[in-house]
Every structure is written in structure tokens, then in C-alpha cells.
Amino acid sequence: MSITNMQTLSELQRDALREVANIGAAHAATALSLMTGTKIMISVPTITVAPLAELAPLISRSNEQIALVPMEMSGGLSGHTILAFPLATAHRLASLMLMREVSVADTLSELEASAVTEAGNILAGAYMTALSEFMEMLLLPSPPTLSVGPASEVLAETAWATGHTGGFVFCVETEFMIDQSDGSLPGYFLLLPDASSLGAMLAAVRVA
Q: Nearest to residue 82, comparing CAs of 18, 177, 8, 156?
């Protein structure tokens, strides 16, 4: 199946991939809890299938600054994964990891950027571990990088850099709810399989 045909997935196929996303989100919440020493709960993930460059309104409704942590994926599947956070989420993640007050600046400091990159690395690793176990495939991530900027710009740049300018991608939207706080951290895990890998994914979840 070509990556450009992902919108034609059957409901059974979407349900299978949603279950994988749910397992991944649970792994990510556990990893985030261990990383910050704070109990983290998760909402039921929502799956969106859309071109990468068109996800800006979902991740940032006012085209505000977002932080992206893209990683190349190799092994049993090839492609890319991206952790995307609104800037407010990125600041809160950094404050949890650095154990200090939440910043309200319109950018990330060098220390915050390092913390968010590491958070994205750990969270993406948790999602990939879930995928690996569920599909019985070895998945290997590349070292993470970080992009920060207006949502439409950084998503368009990332789409070009990863070669996913026209194809559809999976976007898993999850709310990470922090214990002892009324707030939550919206986060987005984007899975960009290469064309040959989508069929392998569906075969692995036995709904190809």
C-alpha cells in the first residue's frame, strides 16, 4: 500500500493502529513519570491521518511556536517519527525535567532546548518500543534533533527534510495529565512510515 493511500484505511485497520498508539502512549506516560518523578496519566489517544504540513492547526490553532523532535527510524520499518509539542508544553516538560518554575518566554533557552530534546528522545523511544513489541520488529531510532518555530513553518520544513511533502502521516494526539495539577500536557506523536513500510505495519498487526 502506498503512503499516499493511508486515508483509505479500513476501520479495522485504523482500530488496530489506534491500539498500537494506545500502547505507545501508555509506555510514553510511564517513561515520562520515571523521567520526572511525577505520576503521569494519559487520555485515550486520538488518531488523525493528514499531510504533515497540514497538521499545524491541530498542533497550534493560532500558528504559535511549537517544538518538534524528529528522528529517523530504521530496522523492521523505515521512515521517521516526530514528537511535536506546543511551546507551552515544551516549557512545562523542561520545568519538570529541570525541577524549576515554568518559563513563559516566547522561545526555549539552551538548557530548556536540551531538556525538551531529551524528553522527545525518551518519549519517541517509548512509542517505538511499543511498536517493536506489538509488531515483533526491531526498530532503531537515530539521534534526535530539535526545531522550534511557528507551527506551519517548522512542519513544512520538516516535511521537506524528511521527504514527506505529499504523503499522509499518522498523528497520535494524547493529553498527559500531571498528578497534583489541574493542567495537562498536550503532545503529538507523528509516525511517517516510508511507502514500503505501511504494508509491513498492517501485515504485522494482521489487518493488511
A: 156
| Segment holding 184, helix H or strand E | strand 184-193
The residue ranges of every structural domain in the chain are: 3-204
What are the pLDDT digits (tens) for 16-53? 777 777 888 888 888 888 888 888 888 878 888 888 87
pTM for this structure? 0.84
| Cβ atoms of 94 and 115 closer than 8 Å | yes
Q: Which residues pair with 81 in a beta bridge?
A: 71, 191
Under a CB-based contact definition with an 8 Å cutoff, are residues 169 and 195 in contact? no
**Angle formed by the axes of helices 11-36 and 195-204, to 10°?**
90
Distances (CA, A) of 97 to 42, 100, 114, 140: 18, 8, 10, 25
CA dist., res. 124 & res. 161, Å (int): 19
What is the fold of 3-204? Chemotaxis protein chec (3.40.1550)
